[in-house]
Design goal:
- By secondary structure, the chain is of the alpha+beta class.
- The chain has one domain: 4-Layer Sandwich (Chorismate synthase, AroC fold), CATH 3.60.150.10.
- 26% of the residues lie in helices and 22% in strands.
- The chain is built from seven helices and 17 strands.
- Strands 1-2-3-7-4 form a five-stranded antiparallel sheet, covered by helices on one side. A five-stranded antiparallel sheet has the order 10-9-11-15-12.
- A hairpin with a 4-residue loop joins strand 1 and strand 2.
- Helix 3 packs across helix 7.
- The chain is globular.
Length: 344
Protein backbone atom coordinates (compact mmCIF):
# COMPACT_ATOMS: atom_id res chain seq x y z
CA UNK A 1 0.00 0.00 0.00
CA UNK A 2 1.31 3.51 -0.77
CA UNK A 3 2.56 5.45 2.22
CA UNK A 4 -0.70 7.13 3.19
CA UNK A 5 -1.55 4.80 6.07
CA UNK A 6 0.06 4.28 9.46
CA UNK A 7 -0.40 1.46 11.98
CA UNK A 8 -1.49 -2.17 11.87
CA UNK A 9 -4.41 -2.92 14.20
CA UNK A 10 -5.15 0.75 14.91
CA UNK A 11 -4.66 2.30 11.48
CA UNK A 12 -4.91 5.87 10.19
CA UNK A 13 -5.16 6.63 6.48
CA UNK A 14 -5.08 10.30 5.45
CA UNK A 15 -6.03 12.13 2.27
CA UNK A 16 -6.01 15.62 0.79
CA UNK A 17 -3.67 18.42 -0.21
CA UNK A 18 -2.79 21.79 1.28
CA UNK A 19 -4.82 23.79 -1.25
CA UNK A 20 -7.48 21.24 -2.18
CA UNK A 21 -11.07 21.54 -0.97
CA UNK A 22 -10.42 19.44 2.15
CA UNK A 23 -8.12 17.10 4.01
CA UNK A 24 -9.18 14.19 6.15
CA UNK A 25 -8.71 10.61 7.19
CA UNK A 26 -10.08 7.22 8.08
CA UNK A 27 -9.32 5.48 11.38
CA UNK A 28 -9.77 1.72 11.17
CA UNK A 29 -9.47 -0.68 14.09
CA UNK A 30 -10.79 1.57 16.83
CA UNK A 31 -12.64 -0.73 19.27
CA UNK A 32 -16.42 -0.47 19.38
CA UNK A 33 -18.08 1.07 22.40
CA UNK A 34 -15.62 3.91 23.03
CA UNK A 35 -17.48 7.03 24.10
CA UNK A 36 -15.82 9.48 21.74
CA UNK A 37 -15.30 12.95 23.17
CA UNK A 38 -15.56 14.99 19.98
CA UNK A 39 -14.91 18.24 21.84
CA UNK A 40 -11.60 16.87 23.14
CA UNK A 41 -10.63 15.95 19.58
CA UNK A 42 -11.43 19.49 18.47
CA UNK A 43 -9.38 20.99 21.31
CA UNK A 44 -6.31 19.07 20.21
CA UNK A 45 -6.82 20.15 16.62
CA UNK A 46 -7.18 23.77 17.78
CA UNK A 47 -3.72 23.51 19.36
CA UNK A 48 -2.21 22.70 15.96
CA UNK A 49 -4.28 24.86 13.65
CA UNK A 50 -2.82 27.87 11.81
CA UNK A 51 -3.18 30.92 14.01
CA UNK A 52 -3.04 28.91 17.24
CA UNK A 53 0.22 30.63 18.22
CA UNK A 54 1.50 34.11 17.38
CA UNK A 55 4.83 32.54 16.41
CA UNK A 56 3.36 30.63 13.45
CA UNK A 57 1.86 31.25 10.04
CA UNK A 58 -0.82 33.89 9.55
CA UNK A 59 -2.93 31.45 7.51
CA UNK A 60 -6.19 31.29 9.44
CA UNK A 61 -8.05 28.00 9.15
CA UNK A 62 -11.03 27.19 11.41
CA UNK A 63 -10.14 23.48 11.21
CA UNK A 64 -13.52 22.13 12.28
CA UNK A 65 -13.84 18.35 12.22
CA UNK A 66 -16.74 16.90 10.26
CA UNK A 67 -17.53 13.31 11.28
CA UNK A 68 -18.66 11.17 8.36
CA UNK A 69 -18.91 7.62 9.69
CA UNK A 70 -18.06 5.19 12.46
CA UNK A 71 -19.71 7.04 15.35
CA UNK A 72 -23.35 6.75 16.42
CA UNK A 73 -24.93 8.48 19.38
CA UNK A 74 -21.46 9.44 20.61
CA UNK A 75 -20.00 5.92 20.61
CA UNK A 76 -17.68 4.20 18.17
CA UNK A 77 -19.20 1.39 16.12
CA UNK A 78 -16.03 -0.59 15.48
CA UNK A 79 -16.33 0.39 11.81
CA UNK A 80 -14.08 2.88 9.95
CA UNK A 81 -14.24 6.35 11.46
CA UNK A 82 -14.09 8.82 8.58
CA UNK A 83 -13.65 12.55 9.09
CA UNK A 84 -12.99 15.67 7.01
CA UNK A 85 -11.50 19.12 7.59
CA UNK A 86 -12.29 21.73 4.95
CA UNK A 87 -9.64 24.17 3.70
CA UNK A 88 -10.99 27.70 3.95
CA UNK A 89 -8.02 30.12 3.67
CA UNK A 90 -5.69 28.66 1.04
CA UNK A 91 -4.90 31.70 -1.21
CA UNK A 92 -3.49 29.49 -3.97
CA UNK A 93 -2.62 32.54 -6.08
CA UNK A 94 0.34 33.18 -3.77
CA UNK A 95 2.01 30.18 -5.41
CA UNK A 96 1.41 30.95 -9.10
CA UNK A 97 5.03 31.96 -9.66
CA UNK A 98 6.24 28.59 -8.32
CA UNK A 99 4.62 26.44 -10.99
CA UNK A 100 7.94 25.91 -12.78
CA UNK A 101 10.34 26.69 -9.94
CA UNK A 102 11.82 24.26 -7.41
CA UNK A 103 12.00 25.94 -4.02
CA UNK A 104 15.26 25.45 -2.09
CA UNK A 105 14.95 22.94 0.72
CA UNK A 106 11.49 21.72 -0.33
CA UNK A 107 10.26 18.45 -1.81
CA UNK A 108 9.23 20.06 -5.12
CA UNK A 109 11.90 18.43 -7.27
CA UNK A 110 11.92 15.00 -5.62
CA UNK A 111 8.12 14.83 -5.74
CA UNK A 112 8.13 15.57 -9.45
CA UNK A 113 10.96 13.11 -10.04
CA UNK A 114 8.89 10.39 -8.40
CA UNK A 115 5.43 11.08 -9.83
CA UNK A 116 6.11 13.17 -12.92
CA UNK A 117 3.60 15.75 -11.71
CA UNK A 118 3.17 17.89 -8.61
CA UNK A 119 0.78 20.30 -6.96
CA UNK A 120 2.82 23.49 -6.58
CA UNK A 121 0.20 25.17 -4.38
CA UNK A 122 1.72 25.16 -0.92
CA UNK A 123 3.46 21.85 -1.49
CA UNK A 124 0.26 19.89 -2.12
CA UNK A 125 0.34 16.53 -0.39
CA UNK A 126 3.84 17.15 1.01
CA UNK A 127 2.59 20.16 2.98
CA UNK A 128 2.50 20.13 6.78
CA UNK A 129 -1.17 21.05 6.36
CA UNK A 130 -1.86 17.31 6.08
CA UNK A 131 -0.74 16.77 9.70
CA UNK A 132 -4.11 18.11 10.84
CA UNK A 133 -5.56 14.71 9.91
CA UNK A 134 -2.86 13.04 12.01
CA UNK A 135 -3.86 15.14 15.00
CA UNK A 136 -7.49 14.02 14.68
CA UNK A 137 -6.44 10.37 14.39
CA UNK A 138 -4.08 10.79 17.32
CA UNK A 139 -6.78 12.44 19.42
CA UNK A 140 -8.98 9.37 18.93
CA UNK A 141 -6.02 7.13 19.79
CA UNK A 142 -5.39 9.20 22.94
CA UNK A 143 -8.87 8.33 24.19
CA UNK A 144 -8.14 4.63 23.61
CA UNK A 145 -4.86 4.68 25.56
CA UNK A 146 -6.20 6.98 28.27
CA UNK A 147 -8.58 4.21 29.25
CA UNK A 148 -5.43 2.18 30.01
CA UNK A 149 -3.93 4.97 32.09
CA UNK A 150 -1.41 6.19 29.50
CA UNK A 151 -0.67 9.96 29.46
CA UNK A 152 1.27 11.68 26.65
CA UNK A 153 2.84 15.14 27.09
CA UNK A 154 5.11 16.88 24.59
CA UNK A 155 6.72 20.30 24.85
CA UNK A 156 9.27 22.54 23.15
CA UNK A 157 12.66 21.84 24.65
CA UNK A 158 14.80 23.99 22.35
CA UNK A 159 14.49 26.75 19.75
CA UNK A 160 17.72 27.56 17.97
CA UNK A 161 20.34 27.99 20.71
CA UNK A 162 17.75 28.67 23.43
CA UNK A 163 16.82 25.57 25.41
CA UNK A 164 15.78 24.15 28.75
CA UNK A 165 18.69 23.54 31.11
CA UNK A 166 16.84 21.05 33.30
CA UNK A 167 13.81 18.80 33.09
CA UNK A 168 10.55 20.75 33.50
CA UNK A 169 8.43 20.10 36.58
CA UNK A 170 4.96 21.24 35.52
CA UNK A 171 4.18 20.07 31.99
CA UNK A 172 0.68 21.55 32.18
CA UNK A 173 2.36 24.97 31.85
CA UNK A 174 3.33 24.07 28.27
CA UNK A 175 0.15 25.62 26.89
CA UNK A 176 0.43 28.88 28.82
CA UNK A 177 2.61 30.59 26.19
CA UNK A 178 3.10 30.80 22.42
CA UNK A 179 6.43 28.97 22.55
CA UNK A 180 4.78 25.83 24.01
CA UNK A 181 7.57 25.57 26.58
CA UNK A 182 6.69 24.62 30.20
CA UNK A 183 9.31 27.00 31.68
CA UNK A 184 8.01 30.58 31.53
CA UNK A 185 11.41 32.32 31.52
CA UNK A 186 12.78 30.09 28.76
CA UNK A 187 9.56 30.56 26.77
CA UNK A 188 10.09 34.34 26.79
CA UNK A 189 13.59 33.90 25.36
CA UNK A 190 12.35 31.44 22.74
CA UNK A 191 9.61 33.82 21.64
CA UNK A 192 12.06 36.70 21.36
CA UNK A 193 14.36 34.59 19.18
CA UNK A 194 11.55 33.53 16.83
CA UNK A 195 10.35 37.13 16.52
CA UNK A 196 13.90 38.26 15.75
CA UNK A 197 14.31 35.57 13.11
CA UNK A 198 10.97 36.47 11.54
CA UNK A 199 11.97 40.16 11.38
CA UNK A 200 15.16 39.14 9.58
CA UNK A 201 13.16 37.17 7.02
CA UNK A 202 14.78 33.94 8.19
CA UNK A 203 13.73 30.78 10.06
CA UNK A 204 14.97 28.63 12.93
CA UNK A 205 14.73 24.99 14.03
CA UNK A 206 14.34 23.33 17.41
CA UNK A 207 13.59 20.24 19.46
CA UNK A 208 10.33 18.82 20.80
CA UNK A 209 10.57 16.45 23.77
CA UNK A 210 7.91 13.93 24.75
CA UNK A 211 7.21 12.16 28.04
CA UNK A 212 4.74 9.31 28.35
CA UNK A 213 3.54 8.10 31.75
CA UNK A 214 1.63 4.95 32.56
CA UNK A 215 2.94 2.83 29.71
CA UNK A 216 2.52 -0.83 30.65
CA UNK A 217 5.46 -3.16 30.32
CA UNK A 218 5.43 -5.42 27.28
CA UNK A 219 4.54 -3.08 24.40
CA UNK A 220 6.65 -3.66 21.29
CA UNK A 221 7.13 -6.46 18.80
CA UNK A 222 10.21 -8.32 17.54
CA UNK A 223 12.15 -7.75 15.38
CA UNK A 224 11.27 -4.89 13.07
CA UNK A 225 8.33 -3.51 15.05
CA UNK A 226 10.22 -2.57 18.19
CA UNK A 227 8.41 0.15 20.12
CA UNK A 228 11.18 2.70 19.64
CA UNK A 229 11.45 1.77 15.94
CA UNK A 230 7.78 2.54 15.38
CA UNK A 231 8.09 5.74 17.43
CA UNK A 232 11.06 6.77 15.29
CA UNK A 233 9.11 6.09 12.10
CA UNK A 234 6.16 8.08 13.40
CA UNK A 235 8.30 11.07 14.39
CA UNK A 236 10.36 11.11 11.21
CA UNK A 237 7.14 11.02 9.20
CA UNK A 238 6.29 14.48 10.56
CA UNK A 239 7.12 17.30 8.16
CA UNK A 240 10.46 19.04 8.84
CA UNK A 241 11.64 16.43 11.37
CA UNK A 242 15.30 15.49 11.00
CA UNK A 243 16.28 13.51 14.07
CA UNK A 244 14.99 11.16 16.75
CA UNK A 245 16.59 9.90 19.93
CA UNK A 246 15.24 7.98 22.88
CA UNK A 247 16.72 7.73 26.36
CA UNK A 248 20.42 8.57 26.27
CA UNK A 249 20.27 8.73 22.46
CA UNK A 250 23.42 9.85 20.69
CA UNK A 251 25.14 10.59 24.01
CA UNK A 252 25.38 6.82 24.51
CA UNK A 253 27.96 6.64 21.73
CA UNK A 254 30.51 8.34 23.98
CA UNK A 255 29.78 6.32 27.11
CA UNK A 256 31.01 3.10 28.65
CA UNK A 257 28.69 0.24 29.51
CA UNK A 258 29.50 0.48 33.21
CA UNK A 259 28.01 3.98 33.22
CA UNK A 260 25.27 3.51 30.64
CA UNK A 261 23.82 0.44 32.34
CA UNK A 262 22.91 2.59 35.34
CA UNK A 263 20.83 4.97 33.21
CA UNK A 264 17.17 4.76 32.29
CA UNK A 265 16.75 3.35 28.80
CA UNK A 266 14.03 5.87 28.00
CA UNK A 267 11.33 3.38 28.88
CA UNK A 268 12.29 0.72 26.32
CA UNK A 269 14.69 -2.23 26.48
CA UNK A 270 15.12 -4.69 23.64
CA UNK A 271 12.37 -2.91 21.73
CA UNK A 272 9.81 -3.59 24.48
CA UNK A 273 8.46 -1.12 27.04
CA UNK A 274 9.79 -1.75 30.56
CA UNK A 275 7.07 0.05 32.52
CA UNK A 276 9.11 3.19 33.13
CA UNK A 277 8.32 6.61 31.70
CA UNK A 278 8.98 6.91 27.98
CA UNK A 279 11.20 9.84 27.04
CA UNK A 280 12.32 10.82 23.55
CA UNK A 281 13.24 13.91 21.54
CA UNK A 282 12.55 15.00 17.97
CA UNK A 283 14.69 17.53 16.09
CA UNK A 284 13.08 19.85 13.52
CA UNK A 285 14.89 21.79 10.83
CA UNK A 286 14.33 25.49 10.11
CA UNK A 287 11.42 25.96 7.68
CA UNK A 288 12.71 26.09 4.11
CA UNK A 289 10.52 28.99 3.00
CA UNK A 290 12.04 32.27 4.15
CA UNK A 291 11.44 35.92 3.26
CA UNK A 292 14.90 36.38 1.79
CA UNK A 293 16.08 36.19 -1.80
CA UNK A 294 17.39 32.70 -2.57
CA UNK A 295 18.86 31.08 -5.64
CA UNK A 296 16.58 28.43 -7.13
CA UNK A 297 16.27 26.41 -10.32
CA UNK A 298 13.44 26.01 -12.77
CA UNK A 299 12.24 22.84 -14.47
CA UNK A 300 14.42 23.68 -17.44
CA UNK A 301 17.49 24.05 -15.21
CA UNK A 302 17.74 27.84 -15.33
CA UNK A 303 18.86 29.61 -12.18
CA UNK A 304 16.52 32.25 -10.82
CA UNK A 305 16.29 34.39 -7.72
CA UNK A 306 13.29 33.40 -5.64
CA UNK A 307 11.63 35.81 -3.25
CA UNK A 308 9.03 33.73 -1.47
CA UNK A 309 5.50 34.98 -0.94
CA UNK A 310 2.74 33.50 1.15
CA UNK A 311 2.30 32.80 4.85
CA UNK A 312 4.76 30.54 6.58
CA UNK A 313 6.01 29.56 10.02
CA UNK A 314 9.39 31.06 10.99
CA UNK A 315 9.71 28.10 13.39
CA UNK A 316 7.62 24.93 13.28
CA UNK A 317 8.31 23.52 16.75
CA UNK A 318 5.48 25.26 18.69
CA UNK A 319 2.87 23.87 16.30
CA UNK A 320 4.69 20.52 16.12
CA UNK A 321 3.98 19.77 19.79
CA UNK A 322 0.41 18.47 19.27
CA UNK A 323 1.58 16.57 16.18
CA UNK A 324 4.29 14.77 18.17
CA UNK A 325 1.69 13.91 20.79
CA UNK A 326 -0.74 12.66 18.14
CA UNK A 327 1.78 10.41 16.40
CA UNK A 328 2.86 9.04 19.79
CA UNK A 329 -0.75 8.21 20.65
CA UNK A 330 -1.20 6.43 17.31
CA UNK A 331 1.85 4.23 17.96
CA UNK A 332 0.82 3.40 21.51
CA UNK A 333 -2.82 2.64 20.63
CA UNK A 334 -1.64 0.28 17.91
CA UNK A 335 0.86 -1.49 20.17
CA UNK A 336 -1.55 -1.66 23.08
CA UNK A 337 -4.11 -3.49 20.95
CA UNK A 338 -1.43 -5.77 19.49
CA UNK A 339 -0.08 -6.57 22.94
CA UNK A 340 -3.46 -7.86 24.13
CA UNK A 341 -3.13 -10.78 21.72
CA UNK A 342 0.49 -11.62 22.52
CA UNK A 343 -0.25 -14.43 24.98
CA UNK A 344 -3.06 -16.39 26.64
Amino acid sequence: MPGNAFGQLFRLTTFGESHGPAIGGVVDGCPAGLTLDAEAVQRELDRRRPGSTALGTTRNEPDRVEWLSGVFEGRTLGTPIAFMIRNADARSGDYDALKDVYRPGHADRTWEQKYGVRDHRGGGRSSARTTAACVVGGAIARQVISAAGVRVSAYVQQVGDVGLTEAPVDLSATWNNDARCPDAATAVRMKALVEQVRAEGDSVGGVVACRVEGVPAGLGEPVFDKLEADLAKAMLAINASKGFQIGSGFAAAGMRGSAHNRLSQGGVAGGISDGDELFFEVAFKPPATIAQAQHARTRSGDEVVLEAKGRHDPCVVPRAVPIVEAMTCLVLADHLLRHRGSRL
